[in-house]
Design goal:
Phosphatase 2c, domain 1, alpha+beta, elongated, 2 domains
Length: about 450
């Protein structure tokens, strides 16, 4: 099927944005239609060959991505998932290749792509087949680290260049999404009872959420996510971007439990892939709105606020997709609910999202939150509401951001008379620090 789309495409030309979209759409259909990882990744290698010639190819992942307890194997070993064109199982298969050994091991260890014009002149090369003269390997990145590699080998010297690196990275991102979904599904199937499945999904969700606050000079940033079920639909994240910028996302995925966790994983992978391309928030929202329906059901949707903070001047460029409006709290305690933006993601096809911008002056704060924060209800049915949220934040301005979040949690729990909420409770608070006297 790949050749029906790409057989006409000259292999010496750059892939256009539209062609990349068509490729990703085709891959997303394959991911949706099957949970067989080998089938998906072999299909991916077929598509690669429609764009870049190779005589041998393989997709490799760290052993920790494939092996789980009680199976005890060293986690710094690399295993092949799919491969073709080798005389025998390639290095990284059996015996397994150590992290840092060979070109594949080097790429996974460093997270950097490698192009070798002549393998005979590179001491890192480990022979996996007779006839290979040149090789290209790019990392497969999940989260913030390389956990695998996509490798091509050619019988011609100098067969690959920087253009091929860019194209291969696109396919490596698709492989990361495929591996992510396959791993999540396999983890779920490993549990026999619903309670055990929920426990696994909770662990998956905790790994999708950031484990620490970002260190951004001149800013104090923190967030929290409290789920009502063992797995909820709320999500937040921080994404490091070029030029010291940082992407910040707060989202609410429809549903609960395992389906919400799987949808959250797909949303996170798609968002990070787009953000790493350095696309703007509006472009990312428009792309996600087109792609998400291929990963979700007919009635599934996502609300979100995604923004990019430029620490140098305090500009926060954001797009809001059917989500609660961000709350701006100025240093003088004045507050403002920012522009809402467009509709939910994955519901309407013919919609265009626009980005907005706000500048944080020293002492200003920006609060991103899900509806569970303001919809907290007392026993009498009265909701906590936006005004009470503003009051809590404004009378806590002297506290560090982490303590302000703690105050919001404490007061909302007192309001509803319980330590647990009826809906997921997620927020991220950003403060630009006051300038200190020289």
């Amino acid at each position: 099927m790949a050749k029906t789309i790409l057989s006409w495409y000259p292999k010496d030309m750059e892939l256009t944005a539209e062609t990349k979209y068509q490729l990703l759409l085709q891959i997303s259909h394959k991911i949706r239609d099957t949970l067989d990882l080998d089938e998906i990744l072999n299909h991916l290698l077929d598509m690669v060959q429609s764009v870049i010639d190779y005589d041998a190819a393989g997709i490799f992942v760290l052993n920790e991505e494939l092996v789980h307890p009680p199976y005890e194997q060293p986690r710094d070993l690399i295993a092949s998932v799919v491969w073709r064109g080798f005389d025998q199982r390639p290095p990284g298969a059996d015996p397994m290749l150590s992290l840092g050994k060979g070109i594949i091991g080097h790429v996974i260890r460093t997270g950097e792509s490698v192009v070798i014009t002549d393998v005979r002149l590179d001491s890192r090369y480990v022979e996996g087949r007779k006839g290979t003269l040149s090789e290209i390997t790019v990392p497969i990145v999940r989260g913030d680290r390389a956990t695998g590699a996509l490798n091509l080998e050619s019988d011609k010297a100098a067969a690959y260049n920087d253009r091929d690196v860019e194209i291969l990275r696109f396919f490596a991102d698709a492989a990361a999404i495929s591996i992510e979904k396959a791993m999540l599904h396999r983890q779920i199937l490993e549990k026999e009872r619903v309670e055990e499945q929920l426990s696994v999904a909770q662990d998956v969700q905790s790994r999708l959420l950031p484990d620490k606050s970002p260190n951004v000079p001149g800013y104090d940033i923190d967030g929290t996510c409290i789920s009502t079920y063992e797995v909820g639909g709320d999500y937040f994240d921080y994404i490091r971007l070029p030029n010291d910028r940082i992407g910040i996302i707060v989202a609410d995925v429809s549903g609960k439990g395992i389906p919400a966790a799987l949808m959250m994983a797909a949303f996170r992978a798609l968002l990070r892939t787009q953000a790493r391309s350095d696309a703007g928030p509006a472009h990312i929202a428009n792309t996600l709105n087109r792609l998400l329906p291929d990963f979700t059901g007919m009635e599934d949707f996502v609300t979100s606020t995604y923004g990019v903070l430029n620490p140098l001047d305090g500009r926060f460029t954001y797009v809001n997709c059917g989500h609660n409006p961000p709350m701006l709290i100025r240093a003088d305690s004045s507050t403002e609910s920012l522009k809402v933006g467009g509709p939910l993601l994955s519901i309407l096809e013919d919609v265009s999202y626009d980005a907005f911008e706000v500048t944080l002056a020293p002492g200003d704060m920006l609060l991103l939150y899900t509806d569970g924060v303001v919809d907290v209800a007392a026993k009498e049915g009265e909701e906590f509401g936006v005004e009470r949220l503003k009051e809590v934040v404004c009378r806590s301005l002297e506290l560090p951001v982490k303590e302000i979040i703690g105050e919001i949690v404490r007061i909302t729990q007192d309001f509803c008379g319980s330590k647990s909420y009826h809906d997921d409770f997620t927020l991220v608070l950003i403060r630009r620090k006051q300038l200190t006297a020289a």
